[in-house]
Amino acid sequence: MTVQLQGHSGSVPTGPRRIPRGIHLSELLAQASSGRGVDLTSVVLARGGQRFACDLVQAVCLDERGHDPVLADGDWITVRATRSRGEPPGVYVCGSASRQGRQPLVPGQRVDEMLRQVGVATGPGGHWVHLVRGVGDRPRIFRISTGSTPRKGAGARGGPPRMLLEPDDLIVVSRPGRPFVEGVEKLALLLGAVSPGEPVVLAVNGDR
Fold first, then answer.
1. Distance (Å, rounded) from C-alpha 6 to C-alpha 43?
2. Backbone phi, then psi, for 115, in 5-degree steps?
3. Rounded distance, CA 128 to CA 8, Å?
4. DSSP 130-180
5. Can you spell out the DSSP letters for 88-110?
6. Which of 131, 139, 150, 173 is the S-S candidate for 95 at Cβ 3.0 to 4.6 Å?
7. Residue 56's pLDDT is what?
8. Is residue 6 exposed (0-12), middle (13-18) or buried (19+ Cβ within 10 Å)?
9. Rounded distance, CA 154 to CA 161, Å?
10. 172: burial class by Cβ within 10 Å (0-12, 13-18, 19+)?
């Protein structure tokens, strides 16, 4: 089987790609992106004259499998990069937020300020928030305390909601009770936070 990849701004190599039967869209992008940084909310699949917008954040973090289809022969996949050359610093917000995608970052801006900016409710019964930081050798995942506590085994170090953001931080928002933590490593890989074969470092809760 062969599919066609079209990558914007170097997000993925452009051209035909042979794939085995049964492979999902997320698996193909994990192989093709190689840490380049893929905007998972800007993936479009064209099949038989129809076009589907596939939000892989929903698929990977929130377990909505309809956004991660099994690929078919002749599929055409268009992917854009998270940041183009010359674009100002920003952070990437995905998941259950009113505003998703790349958000401009003001110097000195805090996590709680960004959450309000993108319409995320905090406090008891609010959202779970995780932050992926550290493109390179040792990426880290922080669980941001917002008043709602992820279930045991979250495996991420704690972080205060007033901590300062850094350029290219990834903020992943999930509603309580939805599958989440299991997909963080895969999501970080697809967004270029880690290279294939490098594990995301999940520190013990509260470890500084």
1. 10
2. -60, -45
3. 31
4. EEEE-SSS--EEEEE-SS--PPTT---EEE-TTPBP-TT-EEEEE-TTS--
5. PPEEEEEES-SS-EEEE--TT-B
6. 173
7. 77
8. middle
9. 17
10. buried
Question: Count of H helices and E strands in the chain?
Answer: 4, 11
Q: In degrees, to the nearest 5, what angle opens at C-alpha 102 toward C-alphas 141 and 78?
A: 105
Specify whether the CB–CB gap between 49 and 80 falls below 8 A: no
Amino acid letter at 7? G
Q: pTM of the entire structure?
A: 0.62
Reduced to 3 states, what is the DSSP secondary structure of residue 194?
coil
Ordered structural domains, the chain, with CATH: 2-81 (3.10.560.10), 90-190 (no CATH)
Scanning the structure block, which residue is given the tokens 């192989």? 31
Which DSSP state fits 119? T
Q: Is the dihedral of CA 187, 176, 104, 67 positive or negative?
A: positive
The amino acid sitting at 202 is L
Cα→Cα distances 167→52, 105, 129, Å: 30, 7, 17
pLDDT value of position 206: 35
Residues 6+ apart with CB under 8 A from 53: 43, 44
Over the stretch 74-115, which tens digit does the pLDDT of each residue have? 999 998 766 555 667 888 887 778 887 778 999 999 988 999
Residue with tokens 């994990």: 30
Please state, in angstroms and as integers, the Cα–Cα distance from residue 13 to each residue in 55, 93, 191, following that order. Answer: 20, 25, 15
